[in-house]
UniProtKB/TrEMBL annotation, chain A:
Residues 17-100 form the RRM domain. The keyword Thylakoid does not apply. GO terms for molecular function: RNA binding. The keyword Nucleus does not apply. Gene3D superfamilies: 3.30.70.330. Keywords: Coiled coil, RNA-binding. This is RRM domain-containing protein. InterPro entries: Epigenetic_reg_gene_expr, Nucleotide-bd_a/b_plait_sf, RBD_domain_sf, RRM_dom. Residues 129-171 form a coiled coil.
Automatic annotation (TrEMBL), chain B:
PROSITE patterns: BAH. GO terms for molecular function: chromatin binding; RNA binding. This is BAH domain-containing protein. The lineage of its organism: Eukaryota, Viridiplantae, Streptophyta, Embryophyta, Tracheophyta. Residues 39-164 form the BAH domain. Signal peptide: none annotated. It comes from the Eukaryota. InterPro entries: BAH_dom, BAH_sf.
Length: 199, 498
C-alpha cells in the first residue's frame, strides 16, 4: 500500500465488496448482522454508521464488508427480490451497493488539491455566496420536513398493519377454539362433512 | 525481584529495556528504557500522557521509570504546561505557537508518578532557550518539533521564568535541555560495581540504535543530523573536566545527573574504542536518598502479585472518535462544516482548515447515509480551543470561504444527540404483544432470526406494503433533491467570477 494511488485502488476494491444496509432495527447488533448475512458469504466487517443528529424513529444503517464483490452483489439482488427480515417483522431491511462517501476512513483522491479563497463583503460575488448559504439552510429545513412526513406515513402504515394482524390473529384464535371445544366436529356431523384427521 | 515473571511479561506490547538500580527502601526496580507498542522509550524522553476526561494530552518528561514490587509499571514525569493550563499567570507574556513551559520549583504540578500505560506516544519537544547549557537546535529540528519551550514556570512562586534553575525535581537541568545523539544515557546503580553487565555494555548502545531506527526512522535521522554539530553544552566543571579527560580518544564523554553530592558518585568508564557512537553516561546519586515518589502508595498488593501483568492497554487507548466528539462538544471546540464537497476525505478537510485558518485540527467527514443530503458534504472539526472555534465560525459568517467548485463553506455549532431511549423503530410488529400466554419457542426464534420472506405468508404481504411505502418515499426524496439542485444551479448563474 505504498503510493496514494495504490491505497485508493485498494479502498475502491473495498467499496465494491461492501453492502449498505438500512432500515435496521435499533436492537440489531454487529453479531446479528453477521449471522444474518453469513448465509450469503463471509462477512469480513460490520460498521454501523453513527447518526449524530439522531432524528427519532429512524432505523440504523450499516456497512457490511464481504469477502468479494460477488457476495456483495448477491446480497443486494437477493434482498431486493425477497423482503429480508432482520430481528423483526414485517418491515424489511434494505440493501444497496456501498458508495465511497459512506466510508469515514476514505483516503483522499490522489492528485486532487484542495483550493479555496476568501470572499470579502465588497466582492461582487459575495451576495451570491450568501444566497447559496441561505439555500443550504432552506434545503436542510425542507429535508427535515419531508423526513417528518415520511416518518408519519410509516407510523400510519405500522398502525394499520398492527390492526390487520390483530384481526387475523383473532380469526385464528376462533378457529383454534372451535376445534378445541368440539364445535367444529359437531358442525361437521350436522352438515355431514368429513373432517380431516390432520387438523 | 523482577525475576521469574519477567519472561511472561515480554510480548510485542511491552518490554523492559536496560535495567537501572534498585530502590532500597521501596524495593523497586528502576529502568533506563522500555518498549511500548513497538516504540522504544528512554529516560528523559518527552511523552504525551493520556488523562481520562481530557481531550488534550499532557506532556511530560520521563525522569524515572520503575517497576514496583507488585509489578506495577510506573513512570515519574516532570510536566510541561500548555499556556492554557496556566493562563491566569501568563501576564503579558505571549506564547508562540506550539510553545509550552517546563515546570520548575517546588510544589504541586511539578511532577507526578503515573502508570506507565498512560503514555500515548512520544512527543518531540525542542528547547529554544539561549541558555549556554542548552545545545542549540538546528533549523531542521525546529521545523520537526511538535512543541518548543524556552521558559519555565515555577509552580511554587507561580511565575514564568526565563532562566532555568540548576536542578528541576532534583535532576540536573541539562537533562531537560536538548540532547545530543552521542550522549547516550545510562544510569548506573550504586551497588553494581562492575559495568560489564551480562548484556555486555558494548552491545547495548548499538542495539538501542537499531531498535530506534526501526521504531522511529524520522527521529533517528534527525538525531544523525545532530551528530557532528559537535559542541556539547556542558556547564558544570565536573562535566568539563570529564570531557577533557576523555576527548583524548574522543569516544566517550560522561554526564552527571542527580548530583549535588559529588563525593558519593562512583564514576567508571569502560574503554571501548570500537563503539562507533560515543556514549554519555549519567550516574545517579545513591538511591538511599531517593524520596518516595509523591502520590504513590506502595501497597504490598496480594492479588496483583499473583497476576503481575494486567492488561491495561485498553484503558489508555486513544479515546474513540465518539468520545472525542462528545468532549469537544462539551468544551465548545466542535464545529460542523457544511456545504463541503461530499467527495472530500477527512484529511482533505483538515488540509482545508489549515489553508483557510492556519489551524491544525482533527476532522472527520460525516458518513453519507439514508437521510444525508447528497449535494452537501458535512464534516465535524475539533479545534484546539473554544476561542479558535468561535473565531472560525464568525469568520465564516462575516466573510465567505469558497471552495474551488464554488461552494461557500458554512460553519455552525450543532449539538450531537445521544442515544434516545424513547426512540423506536416503527414497522416491527410482534405477536408476543397479542398472544402473551402461549408463545411457542419456534415463534420466538422466528422473530429474532433473519430470513427472506416467503410469498405465502401474511408477513410477505405486509413486507411488500413496506417496500411500496419505501418506494414512494424514495421518489419524494429524489424530487426534493432534484428541485434543490436546480435551485443551487439557478443561484450560481449569478456568479460573475466563476
Amino acid at each position: 500500500m505504498g503510493t496514494p494511488e495504490a491505497e485508493y485502488a485498494a479502498f475502491e476494491e473495498k467499496v465494491k465488496r461492501t453492502v449498505y444496509l438500512d432500515n435496521i432495527s435499533p436492537q440489531v447488533t454487529d453479531i446479528v448482522v453477521r449471522t444474518a448475512l453469513s448465509q450469503f458469504g463471509t462477512v469480513k466487517n460490520v460498521q454501523f454508521i453513527p447518526d449524530y443528529f439522531k432524528s427519532r424513529n429512524i432505523g440504523q444503517c450499516a456497512l457490511v464488508e464481504m469477502e468479494n464483490p460477488k457476495q456483495a452483489d448477491a446480497i443486494v439482488s437477493e434482498i431486493a427480490q425477497f423482503p429480508f427480515m432482520m430481528a423483526g417483522m414485517p418491515r424489511p431491511v434494505r440493501a444497496c451497493p456501498a458508495k465511497v462517501e459512506m466510508f469515514d476512513d476514505r483516503p483522499a483522491k490522489p492528485g486532487r488539491n484542495i483550493s479555496c479563497r476568501w470572499l470579502e463583503p465588497n466582492d461582487p460575488d459575495f451576495e451570491v455566496a450568501q444566497k447559496l448559504k441561505r439555500l443550504n439552510k432552506k434545503h436542510a429545513a425542507e429535508a427535515s420536513s419531508l423526513l417528518k412526513q415520511q416518518l408519519q406515513e410509516e407510523e400510519n402504515l405500522a398502525k394499520q398493519q398492527n390492526e390487520a394482524l390483530k384481526a387475523n390473529h383473532k380469526k385464528y384464535e376462533m378457529i383454534d377454539s372451535v376445534i378445541a371445544d368440539g364445535t367444529a366436529r359437531h358442525l361437521a356431523k350436522r352438515y355431514k362433512m368429513r373432517i380431516a384427521d390432520d387438523w | 525481584m523482577v525475576g521469574l515473571e519477567e519472561t511472561n511479561m515480554e510480548d510485542d506490547y511491552f518490554n523492559w529495556g536496560k535495567k537501572g538500580g534498585v530502590g532500597e527502601v521501596e524495593r523497586v526496580q528502576f529502568y533506563e528504557s522500555f518498549t511500548l507498542e513497538g516504540m522504544e522509550y528512554s529516560l528523559y524522553d518527552c511523552v504525551h500522557l493520556y488523562r481520562s476526561g481530557c481531550c488534550e494530552t499532557d506532556i511530560g518528561k520521563l525522569v524515572e521509570i520503575y517497576d514496583t514490587e507488585d509489578h506495577e509499571k510506573k513512570i515519574k514525569v516532570v510536566w510541561f504546561f500548555r499556556p492554557s493550563d496556566i493562563h491566569n499567570f501568563l501576564g503579558d507574556w505571549k506564547p508562540r505557537r506550539n510553545e509550552i513551559l517546563l515546570a520548575s520549583g517546588v510544589g504541586q504540578g511539578l511532577s507526578n508518578v503515573n502508570p506507565l500505560e498512560a503514555i500515548v506516544q512520544k512527543c518531540n519537544v525542542v528547547c529554544t532557550s539561549k541558555d549556554v547549557r542548552n545545545p542549540q537546535p538546528s533549523e531542521e529540528e525546529l521545523r520537526m518539533a511538535s512543541y518548543i519551550f524556552s521558559h519555565n514556570f515555577d509552580v511554587g512562586k507561580r511565575q514564568i521564568l526565563e532562566n532555568f534553575p540548576d536542578e528541576i525535581s532534583g535532576i540536573k537541568v541539562e537533562c531537560f535541555f536538548n540532547m545530543r545523539n552521542n550522549q547516550q544515557l545510562f544510569r548506573l546503580p550504586k551497588f553494581q560495581t562492575n559495568l560489564t553487565d551480562p548484556a555486555g555494555p558494548s552491545n547495548v548502545p548499538s542495539k538501542l540504535e537499531l531498535d530506534e531506527a526501526k521504531a522511529s526512522p524520522v527521529k533517528n535521522k534527525l538525531k544523525e543530523s545532530m551528530v557532528g554539530t559537535g559542541e556539547q553544552g556542558c556547564a558544570s566543571n565536573e562535566m568539563l573536566r570529564l570531557k577533557l579527560a576523555l576527548d583524548g580518544n574522543g569516544t566517550q564523554s560522561a554526564r552527571i545527573s542527580h548530583g549535588q553530592d559529588k563525593e558519593r558518585h562512583k564514576v567508571r568508564f569502560v574503554d571501548q574504542p570500537h563503539i562507533s557512537a560515543s556514549d554519555c553516561v549519567a550516574f545517579t546519586k545513591g538511591d538511599t536518598s531517593r524520596k518516595k515518589p509523591d502520590g504513590v502508595a506502595f501497597t504490598k498488593g496480594d492479588a496483583s502479585r499473583k497476576k503481575p501483568y494486567i492488561d491495561k492497554r485498553s484503558w489508555f487507548k486513544q479515546p474513540s472518535w465518539e468520545e472525542k466528539l462528545q468532549r469537544a462538544q462539551d468544551a465548545g471546540h466542535l464545529v460542523l462544516l457544511d456545504n463541503l464537497d461530499p467527495s472530500y476525505a477527512s484529511s482533505e478537510v483538515e488540509a482545508l482548515v489549515w489553508k483557510a485558518f492556519r489551524e491544525k485540527v482533527e476532522a472527520k467527514m460525516i458518513q453519507y447515509s439514508t437521510f444525508s443530503t447528497p449535494q452537501y458534504g458535512k464534516a465535524f472539526v475539533i479545534f484546539k480551543s473554544k476561542i479558535t472555534a468561535d473565531r472560525v465560525i464568525s469568520e465564516l459568517n462575516g466573510r465567505c470561504l469558497v471552495l474551488e467548485n464554488w461552494r461557500p463553506v458554512i460553519g455552525i455549532r450543532r449539538s450531537l444527540k445521544g442515544p434516545d431511549k424513547t426512540a423506536r423503530f416503527v414497522g416491527h410488529l410482534s405477536i408476543a404483544k397479542i398472544r402473551l400466554q402461549s408463545q411457542r419457542e419456534e415463534m420466538r426464534k422466528a422473530v429474532s432470526t433473519s430470513h427472506c420472506s416467503q410469498p405465502n405468508t401474511i408477513e410477505y404481504d405486509m413486507a411488500l406494503e413496506w417496500c411500496l411505502q419505501q418506494e414512494k418515499s424514495d421518489a419524494c426524496w429524489k424530487n426534493l433533491y432534484e428541485k434543490q439542485m436546480k435551485e443551487i444551479r439557478e443561484a450560481r448563474k449569478a456568479i460573475t467570477n466563476l
